[in-house]
């Protein structure tokens, strides 16, 4: 089992925007985010998936071992939210993955990984 | 809006740049010394091809109404630092139902010899605009 607890910050979201090239203003500009009905800036789903993949890689023999990763983006993550990412063995070469916020709500669902040794 | 299922886009080449990989690894809390993080595919696979879909006037994907609903990556192997890879996107399916449009966008990434590296499968959900004077289909 591998687990990581991450409290999201604007700085981390901005760093991911820059590094990934996903500069959608919903991740960077509170006023813009509010104008499209969001509470303010939100974290990229792909940032959440990236952290989850890192945890899955720890549990499954390293990043080069991952062969498949799936997530459904189920809930918003805003700065200040704390998400617990966890990977647990789900049978031979498989991992069950979860990502729960501080209220116990799943922000990623149906998450799973496969890996090879 | 015309469905564009089956549409393919020209392949895009991208070099796996060490500085960019290091910045990406740091942003997701991975160790930059561990090599190319698996979800760097967000850059070399989905990242270089999704803009082709979003910029396609025929596809008419309204970026402001778009939600990235699901994402899957499958890897044959992970790219190496400094390697140049080639990614080709296609619309695998495009279905409208009850004011929502579901676009499955697949990207195949290959190495310079044409051997497969990664397949990205993104599900985008787009809320369709209800135009004034037009009754929404029931």
Can you give me a brief rundown of this structure?
Chain A is an alpha+beta fold.
Describe this protein's structure.
The complex is a heterodimer of chains A (117) and B (138). With 117 residues, chain A is α+β, with helices and mostly antiparallel strands. In chain A, strands 1-3-4-5-2 form a five-stranded antiparallel sheet, covered by helices on one side. In chain A, strand 3 and strand 4 form a beta hairpin. The longest helix of chain A has 15 residues. Chain A is elongated. The two termini of chain A are 16 Å apart. The model of chain A has no long low-confidence stretch (mean pLDDT 96). Chain B is α+β, with helices and mostly antiparallel strands and 138 residues long. Chain B contains two helices and five strands; from the N terminus they run βααββββ. In chain B, a hairpin with a 2-residue loop joins strand 3 and strand 4. Chain B is elongated, with a radius of gyration of 17 Å. The relative contact order of chain B is 0.24. At the A-B interface, helix 1, helix 3 and strand 2 of A face helix 1, helix 2 and strand 2 of B.
Features:
heterodimer, A: 117 residues, five-stranded antiparallel β-sheet, 3 helices, B: 138 residues, alpha+beta, 2 helices
């Amino acid at each position: 089992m591998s687990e990581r607890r991450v409290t999201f910050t604007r700085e981390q979201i901005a760093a991911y925007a820059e590094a990934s090239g996903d500069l959608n203003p919903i991740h960077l500009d509170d006023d813009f985010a509010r104008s499209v009905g969001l509470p303010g800036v939100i974290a990229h789903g792909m940032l959440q998936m990236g952290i989850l993949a890192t945890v899955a890689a720890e549990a499954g023999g390293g990043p080069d071992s991952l062969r498949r990763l799936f997530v459904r983006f189920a809930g918003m993550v805003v700065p200040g939210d704390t998400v617990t990412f966890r990977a647990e063995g789900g049978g031979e070469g498989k991992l069950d993955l979860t990502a729960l916020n501080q209220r116990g709500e799943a922000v990623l669902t149906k998450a799973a990984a496969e890996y090879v040794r | 809006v015309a469905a564009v299922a089956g549409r393919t886009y020209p392949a895009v080449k991208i070099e796996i740049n060490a500085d960019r990989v290091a910045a990406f690894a740091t942003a997701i809390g991975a160790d930059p010394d561990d090599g190319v993080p698996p979800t760097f595919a967000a850059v070399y696979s989905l990242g270089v091809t999704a803009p082709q879909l979003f910029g396609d006037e025929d596809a008419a994907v309204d970026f402001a109404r778009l939600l990235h609903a699901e994402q899957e990556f499958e890897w044959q192997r992970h790219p190496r630092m400094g390697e140049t890879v080639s990614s080709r996107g296609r619309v695998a399916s495009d279905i409208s139902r009850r004011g929502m449009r579901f676009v499955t966008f697949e990207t195949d990434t290959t190495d310079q010899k044409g051997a497969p590296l990664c397949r990205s499968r993104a599900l985008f959900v787009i809320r369709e605009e209800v135009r004034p004077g037009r009754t929404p289909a029931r």
